[in-house]
Write a structure and sequence with these properties.
Helices cover about 15% and strands about 30% of the residues. By secondary structure, it is α+β, with helices and mostly antiparallel strands. The strands form two sheets. A four-stranded antiparallel sheet has the order 1-2-7-6, with no helix packed on it. Strands 3-4-5 form a three-stranded antiparallel sheet, with no helix packed on it. The longest helix is centred in the N-terminal third of the chain and has 12 residues. The radius of gyration is 27 Å and the shape is elongated.
C-alpha cells in the first residue's frame, strides 16, 4: 500500500485544508469496509436526509449519537447482562460498533429516533442566507452617473 504525505499541502495552501484532510482520511483508512451494522442513507427532501441504521438488540441507553468536527459518530456498547444464559445458537449480533459519517458543510443533525430495532437520524442542510443565490433586479432606466473627473490636460 502506498502512503502519501500531505504535509506540503498544509503549509503551502490556505483554505484547502478540508480537501487535504479528506484525502488523508480516505487514504489512511483501512482497506476493508466495515459492514456492521447495515445502514441506509435516503434523501427525504431537497435539503433533508435520513440515515437509518439496523441496531437490533440495542436499547436507547446502549446507543450514542454524537456530532464532532463535521463528523457524525454513531456507536453502541451492549452491557454484559447475558452472562448467566446458555445459548444453543446465538445469531443476533450485539457486538459493539462505531460508525462514522462525514458531514458536508452546513449539514446539521436535527434529530434521532430509535424504534423497532432501527435508529433513524435526520439531517438537514441549512445554508446561511449570505451564501444562498439571490436574484438581482434589472431596471430599464439607465441614468448616466457623472463623477468628478479631472481632465488630464488641465492638470498638466
Amino acid at each position: 500500500m502506498r502512503t502519501f504525505d500531505f504535509a506540503p499541502l498544509y503549509r503551502s495552501s490556505v483554505g484547502f485544508d478540508q480537501i487535504a484532510n479528506m484525502m488523508d482520511r480516505v487514504l489512511t483508512s483501512d482497506t476493508s469496509t466495515p459492514s456492521y451494522p447495515p445502514y441506509n442513507i435516503e434523501k427525504t427532501d431537497e435539503d433533508a436526509y435520513r440515515i437509518t441504521i439496523a441496531v437490533a438488540g440495542f436499547s436507547d441507553a446502549d446507543l450514542s449519537v454524537e456530532v464532532r468536527e463535521k463528523s457524525l459518530i454513531v456507536s453502541a456498547r451492549k452491557a454484559d447482562e447475558d452472562e448467566n444464559k446458555t445459548y444453543l445458537h446465538r445469531g443476533i449480533a450485539t457486538r459493539a460498533f462505531e460508525r462514522r459519517f462525514h458531514l458536508a458543510d452546513h449539514v446539521q443533525v436535527t434529530g434521532a429516533a430509535h424504534a423497532d430495532g432501527m435508529l433513524h437520524i435526520d439531517l438537514e442542510r441549512q445554508v446561511p442566507e449570505a451564501l444562498k443565490p439571490r436574484q438581482i433586479q434589472i431596471s430599464g432606466d439607465v441614468k448616466a452617473v457623472t463623477k468628478d473627473v479631472v481632465d488630464a490636460k488641465a492638470v498638466n
